[in-house]
Structures are given as C-alpha cells and as structure tokens.
Write a structure and sequence with these properties.
This protein is α/β, with parallel strands linked by helices. It is built from five helices and seven strands; from the N terminus they run ββαββαβαβαβα. The chain is 32% helix and 22% strand. It is globular. It binds guanosine-5'-diphosphate. Guanosine-5'-diphosphate (GDP) binds next to helix 1. It holds the Pfam family MMR_HSR1.
Amino acid sequence: MKITQAQFIISAVQPHQYPEDALPEIALAGRSNVGKSSLINKLILRKNLARTSSQPGKTQQLNYYRVNEMIYLVDFPGYGYAKVSKTQREQFGEMIEKYIRDREPLKLQLLVIDIRHEPSAQDKLMYKWLKHYEIPTCIVATKADKIPRSKWDKHIKMIKKSLEADPRDSVVLFSSETGLGREQLWDIITEAIAT
Ligand code: GDP
C-alpha cells in the first residue's frame, strides 16, 4: 500500500464526534502497551503520528486517523491498565460495545495480541463481542521479532486456542520493528473495505 496521506483527525469521546463522511473504518483493540500505536505508525509509515504509549489512563476516547482519504484507522483505548477505576472500566466497556454494535462504517476489527503472551481475559471478552456482533476480525500477533521464528507457529496456535478463534478469521504475524506482516495486513484491510 502506497501511503500518500495520513492525518490524525480527532480523539472522540462521544459518538456525535465520530466522522460523518462514511469512509470505511478499521478499528484496533488490544491491551495497553501491546504495541497498537507502533503498529499504526508502521502501517502508515510515520514515525510518530500515533503517539506510542500515549496517556494510558484515557479510557474513553477513540483516536481517528485518516489514511489516503480512503479509510479511518480507529484506535481504541488500551485496556488492562492497572490504575483505571472500576467505573472507568465500565465506561470503556460501554463505549466499545456500543461502537462495535452500532457503527455502520466498521468493516474490520484488528485484535492486537502480544505474540509472547496468552490472550488476557479482556482480549477474550473483546473477541467474544466481535463474534457476537459478527464483525469481521483479524487477529494480529505483534512483536514477532521478540521470539525466534521457530516458535512462531507454536505461539500462534496457543493464541488461537486460547481465544477459541474462528478458523475463518485471519491471523497475521506482525512486527513494528521489522515490518513483518505489513503488506499482508494492508491486503486484508483492502479486501475488507471492498466487500
Ligand atoms: P500501545 O500502548 O499499545 O500503543 O503500545 P506502543 O506502540 O506504545 O508499544 C509499547 C512498547 O512496545 C514500546 O516500547 C514499543 O517500542 C514496543 N513495541 C511495539 N511494537 C513492537 C514490535 O513489534 N517489536 C518490538 N520489539 N517492540 C515493539
């Protein structure tokens, strides 16, 4: 994918702030620190557009990035941040569930998992919601450079098993360090917005 334009649009805290131009949306979910910002930066080939590790306590905003006047990447707040209160956690859940349930332009959800670790309870819950609302989902196993290539298969199997993943969902090995998986992920995104 040739990136001609990439721009931060808004941190939306309320649905009325979501863009209204009906461009397809690709959303990203994952625990805090999993590498979502790095993944966005790698996808759009910008060093710092999505700020890495930005304000992990902000549980209630969706960050919108517009790419090539063609799609929005929608970054969910990272979950699992220890210092977040129960109320904030509940607000997070409500906001995300509502978005997934009602957001018509949502074409594909990326669930970003650290390849080294078993998916958390919140990863599993997120995946269940996605399946429940029949959202096309792609599991992205990132930080692949952190384990030897010989272990990739085993870890991917572990992640799929733990999520009870639908065999139809694609799984992409990714590394924001090396760029592994970048083209494959763009292909999956391009296909998702074409259907
Ligand atoms: P976020 O909180 O999910 O947005 O996570 P960040 O993108 O800020 O990444 C958290 C930390 O993991 C940072 O120190 C990144 O440099 C590092 N990181 C993210 N992705 C990768 C990756 O693919 N490989 C390696 N080695 N480090 C990564």
